[in-house]
Amino acid sequence: MAVVLTLAGVWAALNSESAWLFTEVGVRRVRTAFVSSTRSLLESAFGRDALNAVEGSGAAGSIIALGIVLAVLLIAVLGFRVAAVASRRRRS
Amino acid sequence: VRTLLLVALVPLLSVGTRARAQADSAPRQADSARRDTTRAVERNAERQSRDFGALSDVLDRIRAHPLIPRLPAASAVTDGDLTIEAGRTVTGPIAVFAGTLTVLGRVDGDAISLGGDVVVAQGGVVTGNAVAVEGEVRRAGGTIAGEALTLGGVLTSEGQEPIVSNERRATGSSVGLALSWLCVLLVIGVGVLVFAQSYLEGVVDTLETRFWRSFGMGLIGELAAFPVLVLMIVALAITVIGVLLIPFAVVAYVLALAGLLTLGFVAIARLTGGALGSDAVRRLSARGSALRGVVIGTVLLLGMWVAAAALSAVPLLGLVLRAVAATVTFVAVTAGLGATILSRAGTRGVEAPAAKPADPAVWQTPTPVTGVAAARRPTTSRKREPV
């Protein structure tokens, strides 16, 4: 048992570096994929021109754009809520 | 003792191996970076030599194209990148070869890049057309009074018909795409009404009575969709048979999610359309009313995308309309998905309101027909308090 455990330990030690490298590469790739997929998602939703305009306008422009999107989001949610109430009244 | 010694040796070996690997990996990374740089330099050199070598031919070929505006003489074409600085005005046509033409100031006429991009940055103005051959026209906050035209296949492939794309064509294809989605969703909506109206009504009921909860559940569902898929794959990977089932499970999961999203979207379209209109709608049958709601709601929700696509060439309005359409669609899909989850795809209706307490005088109703058991007077189990 001790010999088996020791051999396993030696094997793990010899291979730990490659596992470490694999993990590092994997994390880097996942991060890159996440960033690029988020960007492409935003690009397909809002358009490349919108993203370029926001990027070109700096931090203030980004904050204003985010504020506008959140305001529209809130209005849309409230609008659908009003529609839900109206639809319920109409059907009852 | 021997075992202990061996176990103690393991960390030492690990440290040694790691140091060796780091020493190995440093030159590897340097090699890789060097290879990347060399490749990029080679690519640039190849592109430049190819483009520069064929400048007069390329100009002749491009001049022959009916969509290309007037080009300057070959001697007036700038090699490589050119930037028109802010506050500066140049008279066009202005052209660069194998480089990027960046406009920060004003170009009175056409701005052309042969084998590169045209970038009209914030504050930049091109009063004519912006043309990029084998490149891209980027409107980064600037104004192009004419057309933004992109040509492909002129410099790269001999004898082939150039691929031309301009904003008008791009707008047309965007409008076509939005209209196609509108038609597809209308067909799906009618299909849901015909084959699964009861499920649809279940989802609509949930949206009407528990809207906020539906929206919250939709947000949770969207955030959890990917982790649940990963968990499912991990759970299947534990067993040998499960490993074989992973591809089918992934496809089934994606299809189920798409089905839930579609049912939710049709439900919220039905709700939106059902909320609009005059009281004359009440005279319609249940199915007619539902059909009217689905059609009006779908046209409203997708109409925003059609309008955004049609006005995409208008600098600010197009962006704002598209942002509004995307945000409203996100809310609609989220609330619809949440209602679909809450109602178990419409199979679980909204709980009926609690029944009213029985009228205490009901027991006094006379029994009209012989043989029917008379009502009993309700008795209370509460004990009378002693006087």
Description:
The complex is a heterodimer of chains A (92) and B (387). Chain A is mostly helical. In chain A, 96% of the residues lie in helices and 0% in strands. Chain A starts with a helix and ends with a helix. In chain B, 57% of the residues lie in helices and 12% in strands. Chain B has 387 residues and is α/β, with parallel strands linked by helices. In chain B, 30% of the residues are buried. In chain B, helix 3 crosses helix 5. At the A-B interface, helix 1, helix 2 and helix 3 of A face helix 1, strand 11, helix 3, helix 4 and helix 5 of B.
* Poorly predicted spans of chain A: none
**What is the count of β-strands of chain B?**
14
As a percent range, the share of helical residues of chain A equals over 70%
Count of DSSP helices of chain B? Answer: 7
Strand content of chain B: 5-15%
Mean pLDDT of chain B: 77
Query: Span from first to last CA of chain B?
Result: 90 Å
Query: Residue ranges of chain B: pLDDT <50 for 5 or more in a row?
Result: none
Assembly state? heterodimer
* Helix/sheet category of chain B: alpha/beta
The SSE string of chain B, one letter per element, is HHEEEEEEEEEEEEEEHHHHH
Rounded to the nearest angstrom, the radius of gyration of chain B is: 35 Å
Helix-strand pattern of chain A:
HHH
Largest sheet of chain B: 6 strands, mixed
Radius of gyration of chain A: 26 Å
In which order are the strands of the major sheet of chain B placed?
1-4-7-10-13-14
Tally of individual helices of chain A: 3
Tell me the total number of β-strands of chain A: 0
Q: Output mean pLDDT of chain A.
A: 85
**Apparent shape of chain A:** elongated
The largest β sheet of chain A comes out as:
none
